[in-house]
Amino acid sequence: MELNANAFGRSARKALLDKTLQEALGRTTGRFLDHRDAAVAAFPEFEATRERASRIKRDVLDHLDTYLARFVEEAEKRGTIVHVARDAAQAREIAARIARDEGVALAVKSKSMASEEISFNEALQEAGVTVVESDLGEFIIQLAGEAPSHIIAPAVHKTREQISRLFERHLGEPRTDNIPELVGMARRHLRAKFLSAGMGVSGGNFLVADTGSVVLVTNEGNGRMGAVLPRVHLAVVGIEKVIPRMADLATFLRLLPRSASGQTISSYVSIVTGTRRAGDPEGPERMHILLLDCGRSAILEGKYREILKCVRCAACLNVCPVYQSVGGHAYGWVYSGPIGAVLTPLLVGLPEAVALPDASTLCGACADVCPVKIPLPDFLLELRSDAREQGLKTPGEIAAMKGYAGVMKRAGLLEAIERIAGVLGQFFTKGKGIGGLPYPFSGWTERRDFPAPASLPFRKHWKIKRGPRG
Amino acid sequence: MVNERESLFRRLSAACGDHGTAAEEPLPGGPSAAPEGDRVARFAEMFTAAGGFLLRGPVETALSDLGEMLRAEGVTALFFPEDDAAAREIAEALVPFGPFLLTTGAEVRGESAAVTAGFRAAEAAIAETGTIVETSAGGKSLLPGLIADVHVSIVPAASVVDRMEEALAVFTADPPRNISFLSGPSKTADIEQTLTVGAHGPKKAIALLLPT
């Protein structure tokens, strides 16, 4: 996928002015959050399960070489062909070669963020293979020629009218504003693809080391269709998705659907292992797994290792005030929300995505909901400080932050400034915030409003409430 | 040419550093003991919560309810794998409630105008999540739960387990190619967050719970 992360400011402004998107975002994130909260409240073991999952993932990352080797060995034992790609270019090459060698003309794909990282569809299309997205949301945005805007609800920014127009133009279907009818049209169209495709392509939510299995979690059932019906199955998966054993899978299955959509479990969990066995009536004759490094081993080596615990539930997106306001496209790459703000700079290089760690209020809500306890706010701060060390911050920003720190450490100075700001602030105040400040403060107010100073500063308020000391 | 796999494992070993050996045993802190009470009733409750329809009680009543339900869904063909005796028995017993065409499946795979109900004997059911487990172990077909419009799972009450771990443990040593956890119908909320059934798989998931 094309990288555009440093345009965050511009893209965010555009998103904030998009009325349809704003309505969709409010509806989606609010709903996911309500369902998640209810599911967590109804599951008293959530905290204990979360702790266990976090520890399992840490053990995996501390011994990823061991667990991944075990996974590869077990997968190969059961007939799976395992490929390894160092970077996106290599992954594209391998994927195209697999499709060519298998004689595939049509591939059906279920949702995979990892495949977006390597621009999988383009790679196959260049090799003359048609790739059809089979997740309904992905199918819609593929028809629209757009990129997904939410990990688990990629088409949240589309209305039924827009979707019906797409189906009319691309599938020759009559116009309707009836959602079940629209779903039925996609079902019929995609069913024919599933039955004629030479290859099913999927991601993988988990790789089970002790059995060499790939685990697919879906609600629509498209993942398992692609994994079972076509004669070839290719799973494109990041190396960090390994879990030690089948017995650990239950722990993660208790967390992922609850965190993602508030479901106790998703409609379908498919555990696929190797190729079809002798006597099996269906299942692929050939099974390929393409393991992606694409920057992961470098992350593993450094201080951000724990970001690789992520299970891609998107709970941190839904709870993030910045994501809620600007949606996924503003983040300019595959991953959005807090996970995107940390993972994107780590995968593509900080200079290419230095705007993203700033796209956060550091409110900490993401860390509260993360089912594998990734310290996202700590990482966001750490990346900001890396950016400064690497000379990626402007002198104005550095001077402003130094000045801020200097003032906050001196109560008398703060009080004086508060008094002056109270008077001056009224000239720049619009609504609840201050915008359009002169240089050097314009560096801040160009992209955000500064809260208007209260007429009575908090510290004075506190003194009055509390009364004289002693 | 560099061997990419070796090179990856070299990078990983260097990156992992020295953290002792990997955990030999599953980490402690697994699920606490199963809750008190009837596990079959819990399965029924959770399966229904997942959007499934559960039929239980005397087999004659359940069959007549099922026949009515299939007719209401506009089902015209009942489809079961050739070698699934339990599925065949139930499908055949439903013929009087029809008109239903019986089929063993080959033609269902193509694009047929028939509205199908696919029958299969489930291997297990999980009370914790309201899940039905169907696998390809022993050459069994997954098509009834995969491509039919309505899926009917035949679940012996004795096959209900409490937790996911118990269902998974059976397959750890030698997993079949496909293990499917089915919890309710195929769902999507991709259009305007509106929950709609039948995105790809069955629009209706029915479990016929047989007394042991």
List the total number of helices of chain A: 22
Low-confidence segments of chain A, ≥5 residues, pLDDT <50?
A: none
In round numbers, the mean pLDDT of chain A is 91
Provide the spatial order of strands within the biggest beta sheet of chain B. 1-12-7-4-2-3
Distance between the termini of chain A: 63 Å
CATH C-level name of chain B:
Alpha Beta
- Oligomeric state of shown chains: heterodimer
Give the second-level CATH assignment, the architecture of chain B: 3-Layer(aba) Sandwich
Mean pLDDT of chain B: 90
Strand pairing plus helix content of chain B: what structural class? alpha/beta
Short description:
The complex is a heterodimer of chains A (470) and B (212). In chain A, 52% of the residues lie in helices and 11% in strands.
Would you kindly provide a written description of the structure presented here, covering whatever features stand out?
The complex is a heterodimer of chains A (470) and B (212). Chain A is an alpha/beta fold. Among the domains of chain A are: 43-296, no CATH class; 407-466, no CATH class. Chain A has 22 helices and 13 strands. Chain A has helices at residues 8-17, 19-41, 46-62, 64-77, 88-101, 113-117, 120-126, 136-144, 160-171, 179-196, 222-228, 246-261, 296-301, 315-319, 321-326, 337-348, 365-369, 376-389, 395-408, 411-428, 442-445, 458-466, and strands at residues 80-85, 106-109, 130-133, 199-202, 206-208, 213-218, 232-238, 242-243, 268-272, 286-292, 429-430, 433-434, 450-451. In chain A, the strands form three sheets. Chain A has a six-stranded parallel sheet, with helices on both faces. With 212 residues, chain B is α/β, with parallel strands linked by helices. Chain B has a single domain (38-187, 204-210), classed as Rossmann fold (3-Layer(aba) Sandwich). Chain B contains six helices and twelve strands. In chain B, strands 1-12-7-4-2-3 form a six-stranded parallel sheet. Chain B has a four-stranded mixed sheet with strand order 8-5-6-9. In chain B, strand 5 (124-126) and strand 6 form a beta hairpin. The interface between A and B is large, with 103 and 76 residues.
